[in-house]
Amino acid sequence: MRMTRLSACLLFGLIVCADCLPALAAPEKPNIVFIFGDDAGIDCFGCYGSDRAKSLTPNIDALAKAGTRFERCYAAPLCGPSRCVINTGRYAFRTGGLTNQTSGNASFKSEPALAKILKSAGYSTGMAGKWRQMSDSPGDWGFDEYITDPTASGWYWKTSYTKNGQEVTSEKEIYYPDAGSDFAVDFFKRHREQPFYFYLSEHLIHGPILRTPDTKEGADPALLYDDNVRYLDKTVAKMVAALDQLGLREKTLILFSTDNGTAPAGYQEQHDPKLMTGKIGGRAMNGRKGTLLEGGSRVPLIANWKGTLPGGGVRSDLIDFSDLLPTFAGLAGAKLPEGVKFDGRSFAPQLKNEPGNPRDWIFVQLGAGWYARNDGWKLNEKGELFDMKDAPFVEALVPADSADAKAKAAKSQLTAVLADLNPAGGKTAVVTDEKTKAERRAKRQAKKAAEKKAAEKK
């Protein structure tokens, strides 16, 4: 009888203390699913306080609520440079990926590649979506499987696309966001028994702003932008549901971000500028895509890792896109190539709910312009200092003769940062010669003509 009571007490103790036990240890090699939206800054998402998007992004907001939302993540202000930094872990002045026209200068032959680094640690690698600003093919950069679109003329395909290096022709209309997400889900199913990395490089919410499969017939064209935001949110839900159904959520880190700030109101002429303007608490972001301002580079970063990362987390750590490569490599247990100058700092500990070692500053570059930013100040390539206490809404220029002690200390620190980086001593030529300039101009003109022709057909 004594043993029975003892056993009962022990059992009761285990039940009572179950909630006191620490969370299960993170998988040794977690799956990594990186969902990457397009042309959408923090003002496009409800969880970042967007006035307009309160009801448009419930699934992305839920992902943040059940995980951690990073408040200060910085991309390059344009798609190509951002993708170049992510895939190499190196700043633009090192790779030459300064603009959309030159991001293809970075080659897998001479630069490190994120997917290859993860492959070296035993990961299966896959991607779907936008690639065209990068050089060569996703396969060259280390992706085992991939699907990419042929042009920037729209997201309904009636011709052909590329799958694992082979042209695929379809007789019926294909909506690319669906093709990409279907490819991702199939990849999850086939690689569920091994660690994998999947990079879903979405087109939404990049122009042209077209109808989605959910758009009601006869809908006001001015409202299609909201439909595209909703469809991006729906795609995120599709990825989460697939991982749940496969029993992979506890083994998978889901990271959501976007490539740059929101596109300007005039980006699509048919849309009402008032509807294209995102505000947070009634205040507009300072700057938009293509500008070296907060609105050009400040993007969402949401991490969700069920069973490892508790919900409701909000962090103000400074993060820029060079940090993704060492973070993913750290989680995968991958060794970084020797003899390469990487610029990022891993925030893998923060993704395991540990303090980590956050940065003191971040760096952003577009073409021949750049800045370094710390907790409250920003210094650009012209030596101009800005007070960022009211960012992302106001960036106040500090007079050059300011006697403010805090401003002086910040300028001294950031001047030292930029001197150490020495962007001006790197690859800063946007176009190297007149012939290259003419060739790229002709290519852009042909691209616009193709887009116009495709739009007319629709």
Q: How would you sum up the global shape? A: globular
DSSP, total strands: 19
Oligomer kind: single chain
CATH architecture of the largest domain: 3-Layer(aba) Sandwich
* β-strand amount: 15-25%
**Which CATH class of the largest domain is shown?**
Alpha Beta
Through-space gap between termini: 82 Å
Average pLDDT, to the nearest integer?
87
The computed structural class is: alpha/beta
Uncertain stretches: 1-24, 266-272
In CATH, the homologous superfamily of the largest domain goes by the name Alkaline Phosphatase, subunit A
Fill in the CATH topology of the largest domain.
Alkaline Phosphatase, subunit A
In which order are the strands of the major sheet placed?
A: 7-6-4-3-9-1-10-13-2-14
Number of domains: 2
Helical content (DSSP H or I, runs of 4+): 25-40%
Largest sheet: 10 strands, mixed
What would you say this structure looks like, in words?
With 458 residues, this protein is of the alpha/beta class. The protein folds into 2 domains: 31-359, Alkaline Phosphatase, subunit A (3-Layer(aba) Sandwich); 369-457, no CATH class. It is 31% helix and 19% strand. It has a 10-stranded mixed beta sheet, sandwiched between helices. The protein has a 5-stranded antiparallel beta sheet with strand order 15-16-17-18-19, covered by helices on one side. A two-stranded antiparallel ribbon has the order 5-8. The longest helix has 24 residues, at 434-457. The chain is globular, with a radius of gyration of 23 Å. The model is unreliable at 1-24 and 266-272 (pLDDT under 50).
